[in-house]
Structures are given as C-alpha cells and as structure tokens.
Design brief:
By secondary structure, the protein is mostly helical. The protein is built from 16 helices and no strands. It comes from Citrus clementina (Clementine).
C-alpha cells in the first residue's frame, strides 16, 4: 500500500502572512521572521502568485530595514527583484516606486573622521566595516533592479532613476570612494544637476590632480554615450558652481583637451579630433579608460569602426556595475 503525501496547506492571502510576520519582527525575532519570509514567498512564487510574493517580500524588506536589520533587509530586497524577474513584471512607475521605497530605507550614516585616541580608531574601524556592508547590500539590490529594468522595458542602459539612486549611495556611503563607478551610474541617469553638484563636492575634498580627472571623466563618459547635451551642461555647471563656492578648478591640459573635444564634435571634424588625441596623448593616458571612451566617441560621432567590436560601453555595462 503506497503512502499518500501529506496535503500542503492552501496558501492564504498574502496580507495574512504579512500581518503575522510583522508581529514576529516586532517581537524581535528577526532571524525567525527572515526564514519565514523566504520560505512563504517561495511558495507564492511556485504557485505563480507573483503579486502576493512581491507584497510579502516588499513588506519584509521594508520592515527589516526599519528595524536596522541590514543583512536581512538587503536579502529580502534582492529576493523582491528576483520575484519581479520570475513574474516577468514590467518596468513601470508603480514598480519603480516600490524599489525606491526600499532604497530610501537603507541607512545613510556618516563615517567619523576626527581621530584622537585608540578608542576613536576602534570606532572608525567598526564604522568602515559597517559602511562596507551597507554599500554591498544596497548595491546588490540596485544592480539587480537595473538588470530587471533592462530586461522588462527600461532604456537599454537601464532605468535612469535606478542609476541615480546607486550613484548617490555609492558616493555618500562608500568607505573607499570610486569616483569612476559613481560617474558610470550618473551618466546613465537623468539628473545631471545632481551629478555636477557631486563633482563639485568631490573637488572640495579630493587629492590634488583628481579634480580635473573627475570633470574630464564625466564629460567623456557622457560623450561616449552620444550625449553631447549633458556633457556641455556638466562643463558649464561645474564652472558656475566652482565660482559660486569660491573653489578653484586649476587650468590643466586635460581640461583644455575636453573643452576642445566638445568644440570639435560641434564641427564634425574627424581630422581635428585625431590631432587632439595625438597632441594630448600624455594627458589622456592619465586614466587608462579614456582611450576606450574616445574610441566610443569616434564611433558615435564620426562613424569610425572600432578595431575590436567586442569592446565598447554597452558590452562593459555589467563589468563596471
């Protein structure tokens, strides 16, 4: 006589589980609630009740983050995006707003800088470790969301709004700031005003010689995407903000080079563009990525085919992310 498998209990409406798990979280049993969020949401997904899985995971991510449970909240945030993908949920304002709500709950905590004794050093070490965890958690979530957006209806470089969120978080929270990565996301965003302000803020605290690199990188990144409008805006807006804040952007060959490039692209003058690359070779080579960006610009604006078609900005989008 064959054994019968025990019948699985029918899944109730998601709100019942949301209310039940909220009580468990409020009692302080964060780990127990986490396991239940994961297992119950998996059952909704298996039943193809994606909307309810999303409701449960969104509620769980928000609640865990509100309770300062970063690891749990980040894990559920990524699971929320995975459910969007499994349910083939379209990129739309409603879903973008839900992603934004989770993002806004990730903590933003300034890292202490004034060190006076060993206790301060210990505090700094702990703060840097916590900051690294925050950035890793939020980045994993937003990078997954960007990939979802590309697959389900956003522009081919990903949701501009999501790129701006990631750029802002990387800039404000990273214990080891990578301005190239921040810029990568800003230029794929839709807020050049914020990007210009971020560059000027960076100029006020960076090492000598990094300020002109930051400006040039932003302009060349925009141009490598074919976006001359925002490249010109960054040049003008950074100059304006620097003057208003009484900072100094020291004249440099690199800044002069990008200024001439902007002028050259207005004229559609390939020979002049190539001459500039040759004359400013030493400045360009201050950052290895600049030559590849210039190859992209030559292809975008002058139709020059790349020697290696596998290179280029769109092939490298996830590598930089």
């Amino acid at each position: 006589m064959s054994r019968q498998r025990p019948k699985r209990t029918a899944l109730p409406p998601a709100q019942e589980n949301i209310d039940k798990l909220e009580k468990i979280v409020n009692e302080g049993n964060f780990y127990g609630a986490q396991q239940m969020y994961k297992s119950i949401s998996a059952r909704y997904v298996a039943a193809q009740r994606y909307s309810e899985a999303l409701d449960l995971l969104h509620a769980g991510a928000c609640l865990q983050l509100k309770n300062n449970q970063l690891t749990c909240g980040a894990e559920l945030a990524v699971s929320f995006v995975e459910a969007l993908v499994k349910g083939k949920v379209a990129y739309a304002n409603e879903n973008l707003d839900r992603v934004r709500k989770i993002y806004e709950l990730f903590p933003q905590i300034p890292v202490p800088h004034n060190l006076e004794d060993d206790d301060d050093l210990h505090e700094l070490t702990e703060a840097l470790g916590a900051a690294k965890l925050r950035v890793e958690g939020c980045s994993s979530f937003l990078k997954a969301a960007i990939k979802w957006s590309i697959e389900f209806g956003a522009p081919k470089t990903g949701s501009p709004e999501l790129h701006v969120m990631l750029a802002e978080y990387l800039y404000s929270e990273s214990p080891e700031l990578d301005m190239a990565r921040v810029s990568f996301h800003f230029v794929r965003g839709n807020n050049p005003e914020k990007f210009a302000s971020t560059i000027v803020n960076f100029m006020g605290k960076c090492y000598p010689g990094e300020d002109d690199l930051a400006v040039a990188r932003a302009i060349l990144m925009y141009l490598s995407l074919g976006n001359m409008k925002d490249a010109n805006y960054i040049m003008d807006e950074v100059k304006k903000q620097v003057e208003n804040k009484q900072l100094q952007l020291q004249p440099s060959d690199l800044i002069q080079f990008v200024f001439y490039v902007l002028q050259t692209l207005e004229r559609d003058a390939l020979p002049l563009f190539n001459m500039l690359r040759a004359n400013y070779k030493a400045s360009i080579e201050r950052e290895p990525a600049f030559n590849e960006m210039l190859d992209d610009i030559a292809e975008k604006f002058f139709g020059v085919k790349r020697r290696n078609p596998m290179q280029g900005i769109f092939g490298d989008i996830f590598k930089m992310m």
